Amino acid sequence: MSQDLLAAASDNLPTFTVSELSAALKRAVEDGFAYVRVRGELTGFKKHSSGHMYFGLKDEGAVLDGVCWRGSQRNIRFRPEDGLEVVCTGRLTTYPGRSKYQIVVETMAPAGAGALMALLEERKRALAAEGLFAPERKRALPFLPETIGVVTSPTGAVIRDILHRLDDRFPRHVLLWPVRVQGETAAQEVAQAIRGFNALPAGGPVPRPDVLIVARGGGSIEDLWGFNEEVVVRAAAESVIPLISAVGHETDTTLIDFAADRRAPTPTAAAEMAVPVRSEIALQLRQSEGRLAACFERWLHQHRQHVTGLGRALPRPDSLIGQAAQRLDDRAERLTLAMRGLTRERGAQVAQMGARLRSPADLIGDAGRRLGTASGQLAFVLRGLMRERVAQFQRFSDRLLPLPLTERLGQQRLALAVLDDRLEHGAGRRAEAAAERLAGLSKLLESYSYHGVLERGFALVRDGDQRPVRTAEAAAMADRLELEFRDGRLAVQAASAAGSAPAKPRKRATPPKEQRRLL
After folding, report:
1. 380 pLDDT band (50/70/90 cuts)?
2. E strand or H helix at 87, and its extent?
3. Alpha carbons 26 and 48: distance in angstroms, whole number
4. 17-111 and 131-275 share one fold
5. Is CATH 3.40.50.261 the right assignment for the domain spanning 131-275?
6. CA–CA distance from 281 to each of 210, 267, 269, 451, 517 (Å)?
7. What does the pLDDT look like over 456-488, one tens digit per residue?
8. 173 Cβ contact list (under 8 Å, min separation 6)
9. Which of 7, 170, 191, 291 could form a disulfide with 231, with the two C-beta atoms 3.0–4.6 Å apart?
10. Superfamily designation of domain 17-111
11. In which order are the strands placed within the sheet that holds 262-263?
């Protein structure tokens, strides 16, 4: 019965399509939750290329999907991150394409300052651990920069305060890099401005700043959150140009203050740090000029007194000049006398040399006599040479003309006799030369022979093999020794074999055949 009633009731229910049911649910959710505030922790945060943001809001028991359209992001004054507890204001709706509901966020704020401060402290510890806040990274500011680069909003009061303060203290050339100092893109623009100033080439068409000022007026922690972003802190730490941070008021603190080389409590104070006071410098210059002039006067006075004291110890100039003049006169007189004596001496030497010289007539006469003698000798030599040439010509002519046999035989006999005489004379001279050479070799042999040494009283010691004994050790080791004197030989024994009868003297040995031949 119950099943029949249930079937009858189901037949009376209206039938919806999926789209109709999804549209009905969407209207019911949007009408029931037209405007709500939700508190939760961000998770799965993602920013799409279209500019929309997608994320989730979670607590201990549930997760709510959320979306923030690009047009609504101008109301968000901080950069959302996973793990940050936020309060979102918007309306609930459904997404029929996936059968889920979500919140369309119009505004988003951190869930109290404590959440942002906790995130700030965590980021500060992480960046400090990398050494970005180390004191040794800080650079000294230039005393008087030529160009000052300012990174701030071009429409705010900050740039006017900085320019006014620079004009009061010391006017300098200022370059402004306009950026947004609040909103989602503020951090990226500030970082790009810092890196852009550092990328300017030195000596280029745009002067490179000597110091940078990053400035912004006061505001809440959400308004200043862009200067706590990691990209800004890293750009400030990497800056080669000294950087002054002037963000907020004196009580406001951001992470760029720790990475900058100097922190100014206000933008006006940053301008005061960048340049000195021109009037004070002028006063210091005048005071330094006065002190320098006074010091120079004292130095000049002291040295004038010192020179005066030294002058008192010096002798008078006229006395020094008088002595020098007297010495000059004495040297001049001695020089004159010496020149006269030298002139007389050189004159006498010239006269002596002139007396030794012969007159040109005598020289010409001697030369003429020598020429006559040489011409006579030359004529004699020419006559002899002529006779010799005539005789040679006669001999040649005799050879050419036929002669009788008897005359030719007579001439040949005469020539043969001449050759015989020359042969006999040459053989005699060769024999004499050989005899002289033989006598010289004999004397050389006698000088090299050891018999000459024996003639002077020495003796030659030989062993049993007739080899000479040159040391006492060799003599002690020999079993038999023989001594040769100038008149014969004698056989002896060494000291170890002493006591045996001495041998009879022997006659002098006959020299070898080669020696006898030389003798």
Report:
1. confident
2. strand 85-95
3. 24
4. no
5. yes
6. 20, 23, 19, 119, 125
7. 777 888 887 778 887 878 777 877 888 888 788
8. 146, 147, 148, 207
9. 191
10. Nucleic acid-binding proteins (2.40.50.140)
11. 173-178, 147-152, 211-216, 243-247, 262-263
